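This follows on from our talk about sequence and fold. I would like you to pick a protein and set down its sequence and fold. Go ahead and set the record down below:
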Amino acid sequence: MPKFLNLRFIHIIFIAIFALTSCKTIENLPGGDARENPPDPRERVKKNLEEGRGFRLDNLGNTGKGGDFMFASANELWRASLDTLDFMPLSSVNYSGGIIITDWYSDGNNLDESVKISIRFLTNEVRADALDIKVFYKKCNQVASCKVSQKTGSLSAELKKQILSKATIYKKQNKDKNFKPYKGSSVDTTK
């Protein structure tokens, strides 16, 4: 095979790999809502770059800061859950497994009753069905014979409400922190 064909083949492979790795999945593509996604492509580019999405060449030479890594502190639901449960001792916390389990907790007024909470994360998105919260009650008599039962009620609903409201605040703060004004060519909106 001639040398120029070999070089052309390498270029085609490189372009194909780049194209395949830069594709997004269907569910990540913007919807058809013009209020959230402007129809003008220049406006979309501006909006995406200001929100911290996309690719900027002006940050290529900056070496003062390490890479952006997604730690547990970057997940709004995780942070909100830990902040909500910070008064309780934690028994098991596993970010990669998506679960938080508290130890048995009693407020001190009634030592015969205690509560244990488990929170399982079903998704990283801040929404009502993202959390599976289970509350367990333990009631003991004087002889240390205890009965453990799972109860559904207002406590799990209140926990979910408080976690989601904190996560929404964290998400807004994170979005505001990542906002960088677009410094590209100005968009002519008079057309």
About this structure: Residues 154-178 form the longest helix (25 residues). The CA atoms of residues 104 and 123 lie 26 Å apart.
